[in-house]
Every structure is written in C-alpha cells, then in structure tokens.
Write a structure and sequence with these properties.
Strand order of the largest sheet: 2-1-7-5-6
Helix content: 10-25%
CATH architecture: Roll
Number of domains: 1
Mean pLDDT: 94
CATH topology: Ubiquitin-like (UB roll)
CATH superfamily: Beta-grasp domain
Shape: globular
Largest sheet: 5 strands, mixed
Structural class: alpha+beta
Number of strands: 7
Protein name: MoaD family protein
Distance between the termini: 44 Å
Pfam families: ThiS
InterPro entries: Beta-grasp_dom_sf, MoaD_arc-typ, Mopterin_synth/thiamin_S_b, SAMP1_3, Sulfur_Carrier/Prot_Modifier, ThiS/MoaD-like
Number of helices: 2
Length: about 90
C-alpha cells in the first residue's frame, strides 16, 4: 500500500523533505511505519518509539487524527492514508 508521510521541523530535515510517498506492506500499523522510519532515517532513530510506545512529546496523526486517540501504535494504516509526524515543540517566554 502507498502512504503519504508528512514531516515537520527536525523530522523534515531528517527525511530530506516535507512529504514522502512510500510503499508499506498491506496490514501495516502506525507502529510498523514508525519503526521503518526509524531504521530508514538516521535523524529519527530512537525518537519515534521509546520502550515500545510512542515517544513522549511527539504527535503522530493518521489522516488528521491523533493516533493516541485511536489505537496508538496498533492503529491500522490503509492505502492512500496520510501519516503526519511532529517532533516535540518547546519555547515561548
């Protein structure tokens, strides 16, 4: 299945662009995709999944919905879905 992957801030730098279209096995979950991203992009290694769960402070959206409000890493992906990955954001004064 083909997925549209969108990256923001430092993850965009790691992926080399804002949007990447990539093929994944049918039946892949959000966790499967994130593990593949960690192994593919050096700048994401160890920053998406920590201790078997979604890394703290990052946001991952499937088709605009936060996966923590779905089935987390077990959220199924379907052909044509969009997965957006946001790193932690800090700042303000």
């Amino acid at each position: 299945m083909e997925l549209e992957l969108r990256f923001f801030a430092t993850f965009r730098e790691a992926a080399g662009g804002k949007t990447v279209n990539a093929e994944f096995a049918d039946g892949s979950t959000v966790g499967d995709v994130l593990r593949e991203l960690e192994s593919t992009y050096e700048g994401m290694e160890g920053r998406l999944i920590v201790d078997g769960d979604l890394a703290p402070q990052i946001n991952v959206l499937r088709n605009g919905r936060e996966v923590l409000h779905l089935d987390g890493l077990d959220t199924p992906m379907g052909d044509g879905d969009r997965l957006s990955v946001f790193p932690p954001v800090a700042g303000g004064a």
